[in-house]
Write a structure and sequence with these properties.
By secondary structure, this protein is of the alpha+beta class. 25% of the residues lie in helices and 24% in strands. Helix 8 runs parallel beside helix 14, helix 11 runs parallel beside helix 12 and helix 13 crosses helix 14. It is globular.
């Protein structure tokens, strides 16, 4: 048997455990004597707690404690103010935890939380987001770059352009709703803390707990063996982790806190709404002469996070005059945070919709317009691309989709009451990588163990890392075991920014390569404990690169729009990606398809409403916040081109977890326009909006 090469469609190693129910998640740990905790959320938008009456709650049989700002364990200061729960009476937004009930059973904890009576001194609040808010400001940074990038004279270039598009697109608040809610089981043994938590980064969680509870990191173990989805919301610790540890310390018994789904919109982060003005200037032959992408959004007073939607305009198209800028206003709202493809997902929806509008004005095929403006260097900084095969993705996608045979005229295809349209959009996502450590051990029985504190959030990380190891060791895949999801393992960065596999895989590859060389020099039988090599990619994985490193893709969509009901149905959805070397064909396709489904939801069903009177979201569960179901999803196709890029990591891979969502919403929106001839510029494209537009046109 030959060793398994990277790229093979190996089955996920934990798959059988998950489908059989054997996989244990954070709230399912069989810990003897475990209690349960239930938070009490604030019911005001801003103010302070003036009193907490716990009498009725503590009178319930089985209630162990009710923690309040007066008696909860004190925490050290944190860099993340969203974790400073029960430390003072201040209420920064509705839903903020103001008390925590702990009881012997989940049902009793919930009943106790409802029996707590909290009084407040309310203060005037502002939860009204407008793009011209008087307190809006330009932040210093967004993500890892400046809030504004500008070259040339964008205003003058746009004014002088013979062809112009000036349009505004709106994306509403969006929420992560992983199947497994945020949950933690915490247990103290003396001064040692063990937590099982649903987290995208156990190493980060351990560091935060050590800081908050003033403990050495070696006294804390964070286990995240199985994670039922994260999508960014579990990238950094959330209040459930801290509250469970506080309750366990206060009561002296293990405590599980599973966040109620109806409370998740306020406590685990969300995608803030964006208002995006796009101004595109072009010559009559379709060459861009100006691109202005200006974004307005909000953040909370607790912690600044800016949805960096305009950064995509710094990457996508060649233009001599560019402005990419952001303005943000701090409101009395729940803290926004990472949601799958933050920045890129809403930003590419607006940019690619505007490019489609420009193609209409020019009378040019939208694929050819994108090809014509493909840059040879990154527009914002001028760095050469390590690889850029967007044109190849567009060409291959058009071939597979049958794009050349379409009638360009909007509203030209009809099947009874159904209007039929097709659309296209490009996609991009940056290549990111962080330093990681990993261990590789050769055992006397001929097997190998690879250890790294990676988080398998449903992406198949265990399997892919085993493939990386087997390939570097030159052995069959079944001889490699992968240990992940425990902070006692070699530390590793979190699973986020589509950087997990690239970061962990680099360390695994290095450890296995060094182990192979060491074994070649070893002529005696292996000792009982085997031979181990530890690798650390610090200084290489985080070294500056002279290249602009990005993944690219193209999305094609066909939809029907019902002229009677206004309902949009997706008939076809196809994506083609250039994402370096694909490490596992099976898990990669799953990630691409899953992200495209999320993009479908962003386009057609998902939205939330910020109630400015209460500073909260009425869509507090999956009955009010609509994610796509099986009936909404067609047979999605995901393909990729063979891309070799020597400037990334030893595997030659790019992140693939998020690029599938980027561009999907724009492709669907462009298809709806092609079907109807009506340009809708606010997501989601729900039946009421479409039907209203159809009736007004009729």
């Amino acid at each position: 048997m030959t060793h398994t090469a990277l790229g093979a469609p190996a089955e996920r190693r934990e798959g059988r455990q998950k489908v059989s129910g054997a996989a244990r998640y954070a709230a399912e740990q069989p810990v003897p004597g475990r209690a349960h905790a239930w938070p009490v959320p604030a019911t005001i938008a801003r103010g302070r707690v003036t009193g907490v009456d716990t009498t009725a709650a503590l009178a319930l049989p089985g209630v162990l404690a009710v923690l309040t700002p007066d008696d909860a364990p004190r925490l050290a200061e944190s860099d993340d103010a969203t974790l400073a729960v029960l430390q003072d009476p201040h209420v920064p937004h509705r839903g903020w935890c103001v008390a925590l009930a702990v009881a012997e059973t989940l049902e009793t904890a919930r009943a106790a939380a409802r029996a707590v009576r909290v009084t407040y001194a309310g203060e005037p609040h502002d939860a009204e987001f407008t793009e011209d808010h008087p307190r809006a400001y330009e932040p210093e940074q967004v993500s890892s770059g400046p809030a504004r990038v500008e070259h040339g004279d964008p205003e003058a270039a746009f004014a002088a352009a013979p062809v112009r598009v000036d349009t505004t697109y709106r994306v509403p608040p969006l929420h992560n709703h992983p199947l497994e809610p945020h949950a933690t089981t915490a247990q103290w043994t003396g001064d040692r803390l063990t937590v099982h938590t649903s987290s995208q980064g156990g190493t980060t969680a351990r560091s935060v707990l050590a800081q908050l509870f003033a403990l050495p990191e070696e006294r804390i173990t964070v286990v995240s063996e199985h994670v039922g989805g994260g999508f960014g919301a579990k990238g950094t610790p959330r209040p459930d982790l801290v509250l469970a540890a506080m309750a366990a310390r206060h009561t002296g018994c293990p405590v599980t806190l599973a966040q109620a789904r109806r409370d998740m919109p306020t406590v685990v982060g969300h995608r803030a709404p964006t208002v995006q003005r796009l101004r595109l200037g072009a010559s009559t032959d379709g060459r861009l002469t100006a691109l202005l992408h200006e974004v307005s959004t909000y953040t909370s007073h607790v912690r600044e996070f800016v949805e960096y939607a305009a950064v995509v305009s710094r990457v996508m198209y060649a233009t001599p005059a560019l402005r990419s800028s952001h303005r943000v206003v701090a409101l009395d709202v729940p803290s926004n945070s990472w949601m799958r493809a933050p920045g890129e997902a809403p930003g590419m929806y607006a940019l690619e919709s505007a490019v489609d509008e420009l193609a209409d004005v020019l009378g040019m095929d939208p694929v050819e317009l994108r090809v014509r403006n493909d840059p040879d260097r990154e527009p914002a900084g001028g760095a050469p691309f390590s690889s850029r095969h967007l044109v190849d993705c567009l060409r291959e996608g058009a071939r597979r989709f049958g794009w050349d045979g379409r009638d360009r005229r909007p509203g030209a295809r009809r099947d009874g009451p159904l209007l039929i349209g097709t659309g296209v959009a490009a996609a991009t996502y940056p290549v990111k990588v962080s330093p990681s450590t990993a261990c590789a051990r050769a055992l006397p029985d001929g097997g190998f163990v690879v250890q790294v504190n990676a988080a398998d959030i449903g992406t198949g990380a265990r399997t892919v890392l085993a493939q990386v190891a087997a390939d570097a060791l030159g052995v069959p895949l079944d001889r490699v075991r992968t240990d992940v999801g425990n902070s006692d393992l070699p530390p590793a960065p979190l699973a986020g920014d589509s950087s997990g596999t690239a970061s962990w895989g680099w360390a695994v590859h290095q450890a296995c390569t060094e182990l192979t060389a060491r074994l070649a020099r070893h002529t005696r039988p292996l000792p009982d404990e085997g031979i181990e090599v530890r690798a650390d990619t610090t200084g290489r994985a985080d070294a500056d690169s002279p290249y602009a490193r990005h993944a690219f893709g193209a999305h094609f969509a066909e939809v029907t729009v019902d002229t009677i009901t206004g309902e949009t149905r997706v008939r076809r959805l196809l994506g083609v990606y250039a994402a370096g070397r694909i490490l596992n064909a099976r898990t990669a396709r799953s990630q691409f398809v899953g992200a495209m489904v999320m993009g479908l939801g962003m386009a057609l069903t998902e939205h939330s409403t910020l109630d400015s009177a209460f500073g909260d979201f009425p869509e507090a569960d999956l009955a009010g916040y609509h994610v796509p179901t099986h009936a909404d999803v067609p047979d999605i196709e995901a393909h990729w081109i063979d891309e070799e890029d020597p400037h990334l990591n030893p595997m030659g891979s790019k992140g693939i977890g998020e690029i599938g969502i980027v561009g999907t919403a724009a492709a669907l929106g462009n298809a709806v326009h092609h079907a109807t001839g009506i340009r809708l510029r606010e997501l989601p494209l729900t039946p009421d909006r479409i039907l209203t537009a159809l009736l007004s046109e009729g």
